[in-house]
Specification:
By secondary structure, this protein is of the alpha/beta class. The chain folds into three domains: about 55 residues, lambda repressor-like DNA-binding domains (434 Repressor (Amino-terminal Domain), Orthogonal Bundle); about 130 residues, 3-Layer(aba) Sandwich (Rossmann fold), CATH 3.40.50; about 130 residues, 3-Layer(aba) Sandwich (Rossmann fold), CATH 3.40.50. Helix content is about 45%, strand content about 15%. Helix 10 links the parallel strand 6 and strand 7. Helix 11 packs across helix 12. The longest helix is centred in the C-terminal third of the chain and has 17 residues.
Length: about 350
């Protein structure tokens, strides 16, 4: 078929693809849809795909929306797109949703509640089929918004006590148990914690997990903590200074995430303290490149890519089965030991 072929001058429709492939329009439609392609014989599906590619066929999303009542658009709302934790979550969710024929819109909604609600309302007005909420407030107004508007939504990297929406989380209590157990095995008994922000469910749960882990080792009386205002390197440094000023005899610190641990590293350098000789440090999340810093960071690994994929599966189910049961999927974290932790007094 050459560029001058009359077919090329016609608007490329589903009907035209079906005619050129020698199949019924409904067969072509199923072949072009990743969700229904398995219903068509492989050879026929491949022929339809080849013809569609040759003709330059592109599905008409407006027409499809009118037929199905769905836009095949999904919005993922994040509070800070610059936070590297969200990159693998977005990647995993987008990859999985694409296989189901969805297009993903990512919106950085910040932390102001009014702004978050305005953005969500604007996206809903554009007929998104559902939301993935990576926002992190314990009492998130976006949850109530989605419930009130009867729009499918799933939480990622956080959960609600009431379980009004399905969610995918890591086991924060287990992660702190792994960190504390590791440090105790290295003979550390005076262990501090740089906690995440109180308004974040992860900050609260990891702080509670740290306290419980220390209590299991009968170390509840030597488990001081400082709460960081935000999950940032700068706020990690501020909390670290307070913690070390108040408890100079601490020999190990568990940070609620890797950015907070990096802030602690800054403080150790400014005070001419050595890690791990003076202070052993454990982070959380295993962000990219934390194995490249000096010393490489011992941390709790969370598979955020898998978290994104699992969340996408839950959202697809919520869209296709509006009355399905709500539940929480909890992923198991693992301890990654690197050079930032050592036996107490080993220098």
């Amino acid at each position: 078929m050459t560029p001058s072929d009359p077919v090329k001058k016609r608007r490329v429709t589903l009907k035209l693809v079906a005619e050129q492939a020698g199949v019924h329009a409904s067969t072509a439609s199923r072949a072009l849809n990743p969700v229904t392609r398995a219903m068509v014989l492989p050879a026929v599906a491949q022929k339809v795909l080849d013809v569609a590619r040759e003709l330059g066929y592109r599905p008409d999303p407006v027409a499809a929306s009118l037929r199905t009542g769905r836009s095949k658009l999904v919005a993922i709302l994040v509070p800070d797109i610059s936070n590297s934790v969200f990159a693998p979550i977005l990647s995993g969710a987008s990859e999985r949703l694409a296989t189901e024929g969805y297009t993903v819109i990512v919106a950085d909604v910040g932390s102001e509640k009014d702004k978050q609600l305005d953005i969500a309302a604007g996206l809903l007005a554009r007929r998104v089929d559902g939301f993935i909420l990576a926002t992190v407030e314990k009492d998130d107004p976006l949850v109530a918004f989605c419930i009130e508007q009867n729009v499918p939504a799933v939480l990622v990297n956080r959960a609600e006590a009431q379980a009004r929406l399905s969610s995918v989380v890591s086991d924060d209590e287990l992660s702190m148990q792994l960190a504390v157990d590791h440090l105790v095995s290295l003979n550390h008994t005076f262990i501090g914690h740089i906690a995440g922000p109180v308004q974040h469910s992860t900050g609260y749960l990891r702080r509670r997990g740290f306290s419980r882990a220390m209590a299991k080792h009968d170390l509840a009386d030597s488990a001081p903590y400082q709460i960081a205002k935000n999950y940032s390197r700068q706020d990690g440094a501020i909390a670290a200074r307070k913690l070390l000023d108040m408890h100079p005899d601490i020999t190990a610190i568990v940070a609620a995430n890797d950015l907070l641990a990096l802030g602690l590293y800054d403080v150790l350098r400014e005070r001419n303290m050595r890690c791990p000789d003076d202070i052993s440090v454990v982070g959380h999340n295993d962000m990219q490149l934390v194995d490249m810093i000096a010393p490489p960071l011992t941390t709790i690994r969370v598979d955020h890519h898998e978290m994104g994929q699992t969340t996408a599966n839950l959202l697809r189910d919520a869209i296709e089965r509006p009355n399905h049961a709500k539940f929480t999927v909890t992923l198991k974290p693992s301890l990654i030991v690197r050079a930032s932790t050592a036996v107490k007094g080993s220098s």
